[in-house]
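Design job #97: recover the sequence.
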């Protein structure tokens, strides 16, 4: 699945929001854990130093300076872990006893606490690490410092921080991965619905939104959409059936009427002949409309799908040009034809000829005198493309989706002859063959391209075919 659609999906944005909220909560929780842990260890350290100070102060009160010096010396010599820091200096800050060679330069806070660097030898040579101590002033302008080396404390706190950082990073990465997987799953379901919707919009009304059987909200949505599609298809079938029944029931009376008019024409006064001929022409036009309706219905119902055979479009297009060249010449138009053979497709020759004839008829009908009409058939990859172009007024962009509707006319006044069923039949034939129709504005003029899938290589008829 591509990265772009997932990043743009609403489910991924929801996942990111959830991850941000979870990250904020986690940072707050880990911050509290760090604060409480580090604070506890720091308080323990300060309590240990305070206890040391209290012991030395007691020794100083009981035994004076000699007792204090003895106690500091004892602590320095008996310190097993080497973490204790002691220093007693005089008024000139010269060391009297302790394990520091000089008084730290750091200024103490109001409570006497200072933090300074210690230098010592280690596995990597000379090392610098931190120490925390408390200072106070004794009688006789003496100054005492008692503290602890905090390298172990800082190492422990560093491990805690690293663990918290890794935990937070891993949790956020898992949240991001979870959001990604959730978004990908949701997007797959949405893409299935979108793909089915496109197929339905392209004319395959039998398609339905797939379900995965989980019964989740997507399945419920799919059920609702499928029921809606079933209802729409049933209503469309009813409307189509009504139109077909009307066309079928009226065609027979119209044929009788036409026959009677022709019979009257043979017996009527010569002065009535023009009126009777006009009436017969009107009857023929109505019969043509009803026949077109019935033919479209049969095509949409798939009545001709079993009659599909290999057809070469090149001679079909040339025959079509020969049929319309006299009409174009009478209108002062130029009809040009270019057909590269062979162009084998699977279809019904009569339906293909009728569909292409409707396109050429429209082009000739709407092209003004002196204009041009061009018909070109060529091979393009896996498709045979037939392009009919003209120099007429074209079709406004906002009407191009509607021109395939039954009885729709771009000419609102309906002053141009026709029933508005020509392009409807072309679309029905295209859908039955899996073809595509494209309309392109030539400014001026219009180009209509019918792209038909080529017949499989084994189905192409040979040179001796009578197709």
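Job complete. Output follows.
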């Amino acid at each position: 699945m591509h990265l772009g659609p997932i990043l743009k999906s609403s489910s991924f944005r929801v996942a990111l929001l959830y991850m941000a909220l979870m990250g904020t909560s986690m940072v707050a929780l880990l911050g509290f854990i760090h604060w409480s842990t580090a604070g506890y260890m720091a308080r323990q350290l300060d309590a240990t130093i305070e206890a040391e100070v209290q012991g030395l102060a007691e020794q100083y009160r009981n035994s004076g300076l000699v007792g204090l010096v003895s106690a500091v010396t004892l602590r320095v010599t008996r310190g097993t872990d080497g973490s204790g820091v002691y220093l007693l200096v005089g008024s000139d800050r010269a060391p009297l006893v302790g394990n520091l060679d000089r008084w730290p330069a750091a200024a103490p806070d109001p409570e006497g606490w200072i933090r300074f660097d210690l230098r010592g030898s280690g596995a990597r040579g000379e090392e610098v690490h931190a120490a925390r101590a408390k200072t106070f002033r004794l009688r006789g302008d003496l100054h005492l410092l008692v503290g602890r080396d905090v390298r172990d404390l800082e190492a422990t706190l560093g491990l805690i921080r690293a663990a918290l950082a890794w935990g937070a990073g891993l949790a956020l990465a898992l949240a991001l991965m979870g959001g990604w997987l959730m978004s990908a799953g949701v997007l797959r379901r949405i893409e299935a619905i979108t793909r089915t919707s496109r197929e339905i919009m392209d004319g395959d009304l039998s398609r339905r939104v797939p379900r995965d059987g989980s019964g989740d909200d997507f399945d419920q949505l799919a059920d609702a959409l499928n029921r809606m599609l079933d209802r729409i298809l049933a209503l469309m079938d009813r409307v189509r059936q009504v139109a077909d029944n009307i066309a079928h029931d009226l065609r027979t009376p119209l044929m009788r009427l036409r026959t009677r008019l022709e019979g009257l024409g043979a017996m009527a006064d010569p002065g009535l002949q023009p009126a009777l001929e006009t009436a017969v022409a009107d009857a023929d036009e109505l019969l043509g409309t009803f026949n077109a309706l019935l033919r479209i219905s049969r095509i949409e119902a798939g009545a001709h799908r079993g009659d599909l055979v290999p057809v070469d479009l090149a001679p079909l297009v040339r025959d079509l040009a020969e049929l319309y060249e006299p009409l174009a010449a009478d209108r002062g138009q130029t009809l040009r034809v270019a057909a590269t053979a062979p162009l084998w497709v699977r279809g019904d020759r009569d339906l293909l000829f009728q569909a292409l004839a409707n396109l050429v008829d429209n082009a000739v009908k709407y092209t003004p005198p002196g204009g041009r009409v061009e018909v070109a058939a060529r091979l393009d990859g896996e498709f045979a493309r037939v392009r009919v172009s003209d120099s007429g007024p074209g079709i406004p962009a906002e009407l191009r989706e509607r021109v395939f509707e039954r009885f729709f006319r771009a000419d609102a006044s309906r002053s141009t002859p026709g029933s508005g069923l020509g392009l409807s039949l072309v679309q029905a034939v295209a859908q039955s063959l899996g073809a595509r129709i494209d309309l392109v504005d030539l400014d001026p003029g219009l180009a209509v391209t019918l792209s038909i899938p080529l017949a499989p290589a084994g189905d192409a008829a040979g040179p001796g075919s009578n197709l």
